[in-house]
Write a structure and sequence with these properties.
68% helix, 312 residues, mainly alpha, rod-shaped, 3-stranded antiparallel beta sheet
Length: 312
């Protein structure tokens, strides 16, 4: 019967596809013990050695160390328990590799300096608590002290909070790193703060009349048809569109639609049109897995050009 058959180490190698040297190595460490020996002292193995070696090879390919493998084949550890622990360890390794891949890709694409590379690497490896703290500091710098007077800002802050998933893809990691760099930029923080303060002032002024849409959204809707029609912002055909959104802004502040108001609106729209703000929102969408946000830049560019012509 085959179950009683003993195999030489060479025959075992042919059956398993492993080398004689490898089988001898496993045998010396007690992972696959010989069932007997020939009178000359050569090792002989039973049929169970074939199954054990097949299992050993599979576990080695999965990355288990020999000490753990020996405990599994000797049934000192259950294979499901070992597999679960090893899968968890691999998940951590995969996450680290994804982070490294993302940083190296960003360095290659951006031509980063050693200092920038070090910062990107540090930002990519932040823990969840550290990420939340960094984002919290940015949002507090931008909106701190304004939420009480403008409760709507609480929702704005939530909508501007990145939530990197547990298993992010490389694009999400790259987006997080760039977003974190932006949130650390003092000039960007100052720009967002200025925008928030101006919006808070507008909300306070319009409180009696009820909630009002942000001026950037109003401008986008008012000049959308002009953009679609290809109207030059400096041409007379642009006048009705400009009058529509400046009248809305004048009504908000209960002031005449004059040159001073239009200059003020120009500065307001230039602040809103900060490309860093739009980039933050684009990166936020990538990190959170949201659809790409609509760009306000075309409408804002058109509006600013139109206002400068009419309020030099």
């Amino acid at each position: 019967m085959e179950g009683d058959t003993l195999y030489s180490i060479g025959e075992l190698a042919r059956r398993t596809g492993l080398t004689v040297k490898t089988i001898r190595f496993y045998s010396d460490r007690g992972i696959v013990a010989p069932a007997d020996r020939t009178p000359a002292g050569y090792r002989l193995y039973g049929i169970d050695a074939v199954a054990r070696l097949d299992l050993v090879r599979t576990l080695r390919e999965l990355g288990l160390d020999l000490s753990t493998i020996r405990k599994v084949v000797d049934r000192e550890l259950s294979l499901p328990e070992v597999a679960a622990a090893h899968a968890e360890a691999l998940a951590v390794q995969i996450r680290v590799l994804r982070l490294r891949h993302a940083v190296l890709t960003a360095v290659a694409e951006r031509g980063s300096t050693p200092e920038e590379t070090e910062l990107m690497h540090r930002l990519a490896q932040l823990s969840e608590d550290e990420r939340r703290r960094l984002v919290g500091e940015f949002l507090d710098a931008a909106f701190g002290g304004l939420v009480a007077a403008t409760p709507a800002f609480a929702g704005v802050m939530r909508s501007m909070t990145p939530e990197l998933p547990d298993n992010p893809d490389p694009e999400q990691v790259q987006a997080w790193v760039e977003l974190a760099e932006l949130s650390l930029d003092p000039e960007f923080r100052s720009s967002v703060r200025q925008l928030a303060e101006e919006q808070a002032a507008e909300q306070v002024r319009s409180a009696a009349a009820g909630p009002r849409r942000d001026i950037a959204a109003v401008v986008r809707d008012q000049v959308g048809p002009a953009l679609a029609a290809g109207i030059d912002p400096a041409s007379p055909q642009a006048d009705p569109f400009v009058a529509a959104f400046t009248a809305d802004y004048a009504h908000l502040f209960d002031r005449p639609d004059d040159i001073d108001l239009r200059r003020r609106l120009t500065a307001r729209l230039e602040c809103v049109n900060d490309p860093r703000r739009e980039r933050y929102l684009q990166l936020l969408a990538v990190v959170n897995g949201w659809p790409a946000p609509e760009s306000l830049a075309p409408a804002l560019d058109w509006s600013v050009q139109a206002l400068r012509v009419r309020a030099p």
